[in-house]
Amino acid sequence: MLAVVLVVAGAGVLRWRCPAWFWMTFGVLYAAVRVRVRYASVMDACDLTVAASRFRLTVARWLGWSVPRQRLPRLLWIKPTRTGLRLGVRMCPGQDAFDFSAATDRLRHAFGMYQVTSRETKSGTVEIAMTGYDVLKRVQMPVRRERGARGVLRVAVALCEDGSVHYRDYRQVPHAITLGASGSGKSVTQRRVIKELAAQRVALVGVDCKNGVELAPLARRFSALADDADAAADLLEALVVRMEAIYQVIRREQRVSADVPDAEITADIWGLPEHLRPVPVVLTIDEIAELALYTTAAEKKRRERSVVALVRLAQLGRAAGIFLDIYGQRFGSELGDGITMLRAQLTGRMSHRVNDESSSKMAFGDISPHAVFAATQIRNDRPGMAVVGYSSGEWTRIRAANTSLREAVTACNKHADLTPVLPELARFRPDVDAGGPVAAAAVESAPAPV
Ligand SMILES: Nc1ncnc2c1ncn2[C@@H]1O[C@H](COP(=O)(O)OP(=O)(O)OP(=O)(O)O)[C@@H](O)[C@H]1O
To answer: Which residues carry a binding-site annotation for ATP?
Structure first.
């Protein structure tokens, strides 16, 4: 008896102090059994059953049997996860995925879970993802990566509200914008992305018009860095020159392949032979408004140079292996000509807490009104929380893994030897001698002249 009391008390304390451990020790088993036992009654209570088929009703009437029960959507599987449970459910005829997404709140109450979402995985089947506790309260990224999660240009940035990992996948979504009010967590998200990219074979290029306070400490892993708007305009133009040189390499390789029967013909860097393939570049811009604002005629000219270069990079950069990550507080037409055009190219959209609806419309106005609303609802006491939207109209809440500047600096210093020297951007190579020598840099060969 005493042992039972001790176990129950221990479980209670664990649930209060460390919900992740509670879930993995007691919670998952208890929840799985409860879902299995209560499945039929919960589906009934949540209006997720349908009337028996006419055939069964007719047969029952002919034979004088009692009226057949409502039909249940079939429970295909229950999969425990690190943060919750996933159920595979085959829908009954006449049901659609919307019935289940409309019932998620009822399912949450009925199963006693913290959060429930649902999505159609294949025709007729929905996956119901349930989290057992508030996974975004203290983000703990999984230590073991999911199968297929490794890969160049794919980094784990945050946890989603359903407990899954949110990846920034540059090859799927080449260019992205992250918005948010001051103090909402943009810099922490940026650090997390850079920390994860540092270990990969990519060139990091940065524009930080806050005099470099965010990116300069990470300079050892950066191939080029601009810390004011004038240097940024030059750097962006140099990147356009690099992009054009890479296009020439691709063209030349296409001509070679065209003469070889059955040879694949590539239209981007990934199809180039390894010795010709340039290293991919991730360009990070902190506070885009600093590039777009001007007061004097000279600044206006510089702004135009920057915006034109950025629009060209966003339009054409993907095939040349150039990817953009833009951070800012706002990103709307008030920043002047070219900004709306640039935004249309930035298919990845993330918004941290914003001060007004118009800011969140800048991220999601053309994607989903629900996402616009969700971004305005992010609480002040949840820095790092954000809404991510996709061009398909889907969106989800995430929270970035808290990453200190110290952690990011340590990762960048550790992988400084992976920093390629980009010939076109060599003059923007940060001077890190003040902090010690850069470890032997891997010199990337310049794209061969055509
Ligand atoms: N993912 C997170 N988890 C926990 N705390 C966070 C997270 N992100 C940010 N914070 C907290 O919020 C504070 C402000 O975050 P951050 O500096 O990233 O904001 P910001 O949007 O870049 O602000 P600004 O635009 O003024 O630079 C951080 O010092 C950190 O304490």
So the answer is: 180-187
Backbone angles phi, psi at 297, to 5 degrees: -65, -40
Q: Which runs of consecutive H residues, i.e. helices, occur in 379-434? A: 405-414
Q: Residue 256: which region, alpha, beta or left (left: phi > 0; alpha: psi -120 to 50)?
A: alpha
Q: Which distant-in-sequence residues (6+ apart) come within 8 Å of 74 by Cβ? A: 89, 90
Index of the ligand 1 atom closest to the CA of residue 214: 27
- The per-residue pLDDT of the chain, averaged, comes to 88
Where are the chain's structural domains? Answer: 2-131, 154-443
Contact present, 225 and 208 (Cβ < 8 Å): yes
Query: What residue has token string 């800012």?
Result: 328
Helices (H), 96-224: 97-102, 104-111, 186-197
Q: Specify the CATH number of the domain 154-443.
A: 3.40.50.300
Q: What is the pTM of this model?
A: 0.82
Does the 2-131 domain belong in CATH 3.30.980? yes
Residues 12-38 have pLDDT tens digits of 777 777 787 888 888 889 999 999 999
Question: 94: left (phi > 0), else alpha (psi -120 to 50), else beta?
Answer: left
Distance from residue 187's CA to the centre of ligand 1 (Å): 6
DSSP element (H, E) containing 333 = none
The sign of the torsion formed by the CA atoms of 252, 258, 261, 262 equals: positive
Q: In the structure, which protein residues have their CB atom closer than 6 angstroms to any atom of ligand 1?
A: 180, 182-188, 383-384, 399-400, 402
Report pLDDT for 438: 40
Q: Read off the tokens for 164.
A: 């899954």
Beta-strand ranges (E) seen in 241-365 are: 281-286, 322-328, 348-352
The residue type found at 444 is: E
Exposure b/e, 64-88, CB count within 10 A at least 16 = b: eeeeeeebbbebeebebbbbbbbbb
Question: Among the residues of 259-353, which ranges form H helices?
Answer: 289-292, 297-316, 339-345
| 238 pLDDT higher than 80 | yes
Percent of the chain at pLDDT exceeding 70:
94
Whole-number percent of the chain with pLDDT over 90: 54
Report how far residue 196's alpha carbon sits from residue 198's, in angstroms, rounded to the nearest whole number. Answer: 5
> Among candidates 382, 342, 392, which has minimal Cα distance to 362?
342
